[in-house]
Amino acid sequence: MRRVVRIGSAAAVAGMLIGVVGLIGASTAGATPDDWWFGQSKVMIRGAAASESPDGGYGLGIYARNNGAPEDGWGQIRFGGADAAEGGHGDAGEVHCLTRDAHGLIQVSGRVFASGGRNDAAREFAVTIDTESRPQRFSGVRLGAPGTIAPCSGGTAEFHPVTRGGYESSPPPGK
Fold first, then answer.
1. Fewer CB under 10 Å: which end of the chain, C or N?
2. Per-block average pLDDT, block size 10, for the chain (175 residues)?
3. How is the chain split into domains, by residue range?
């Protein structure tokens, strides 16, 4: 019985080592760290930022990409007001659409899967993130019933300047 356990354990360790060597040896020739992290994405964005102003505090974190059409976007997003940590409102959502418009604005939409402070779960969301401006900025989040927000339509017209954190994104076309 001990021999079977030793052989099984040795096989498991060998399999893990081969898997790790395979990952390490995966070809990254000519790839940037972003290519390795995000693959050959058409549009990608990652980061978290907060905006603190006299009008209030807001936060938005995102990790998302698309590898083809905007509707092939995937990833996750978190957003909320400054009071989210103190029992206020905060949501988490799944990205279903991600695109960058002609002005370099990244537009994201999807569905909320978790909500704290109010019942937004299963609602749709849309937001716009401007990674090219200095300071960076993000829009207010638009929420709606399922089927009421067009894919990649963007957030509200109100933008919040980033005062902490920031975003990395794929460069806009032509840059």
1. N
2. 40 34 38 54 90 86 90 92 64 94 91 82 93 94 94 93 92 68
3. 33-169
